[in-house]
Amino acid sequence: MPTSARRWVLASRPEGKPVRDNFRLEEVDLPDPGENEILIRTEYHSVDPGMRSRLSGDSYAAALPLGATIDSAMVGVVEKSNNEKFSPGNLVTGGFGWVSHAISNGRGVQKLDPSLFHGALRPTAAIGVLGIPGLTSYFGLLDLGDPKEGQTVLISSAAGPVGATAGQIAKMKGCRVVGIAGSERKCDYVRGLGFDDAFDYHEDSLADAIKTHCPDGVDIYFDNVGAEMLDAALLNMKEHGRIVVSGQVAEYNAETPVGIRHVTRFITHRLRMEGLVVFDYFKQFPQAQAEMARWIHEGKLQYTEDISEGLEGSADAFIGLFEGENLGRRLVKVG
Fold it and tell me: What are residue 232's phi and psi, to 5 degrees?
């Protein structure tokens, strides 16, 4: 029998910050799984700030078409299977978006290893600290940032899942780590993760605030925000400093990007600035996930999940990302 399912689709393209009317919750009937297909019931799906750019136009991937399901990662349970690789009851992860159920031929679907996900490592970590946010932190910091013991690492949006993970990895590498966050509550949170210092970005002068908290300058700036914060960091970089561009949350809703002004610093201080799309490291994902899982089980790496209840709240959960509501990885518990 067909399965009654729900999904969120893009109803209209946002102008500035997304609003509720940009999204529409639909009911659909899914057929029974065909040959080599499986039916998955979603338990949790993610909401991702990086998805914002695709709602308006082409970005790291093509623009999401109007009427298409909003993309995201999910953790779910196989309910029916005609695929020998999967059995009913298997816990899996995939990229099916804001949906209650999905039909798949198994391509891109991964079974979660029960021997890995236990204790401090919950299954939802597969779409968080061991998923795209955590892997972005891992490769962005270790490959592009190339941290050395004793260096100073400055991280924007430090209370988010990418920033919080990057900061903890930098501490493991012997660095001094300073976080920038949006409230004193969030600053307390990142200090609790082991950051050496943190400050609220609501300052009269961001450049002066960074100088106060990084008096000897910044070796690595892990940028999740862009705009004026990036410009302020540039003024505090040491010679041969590295800027890792992970995200640009302050630019996603801007009609005209702020960009950067202090370009001369790249010459005078021999700076290097590079962005990353984490999927470029796809073949290295298993190695990175195994190492981060070990860190979590050893108590060296912590993660926080901000979970809201019910698929009907997915759009509001996404919109809230741009109001600074979340602390850690934002997920929606579907069922």
Answer: -65, -40
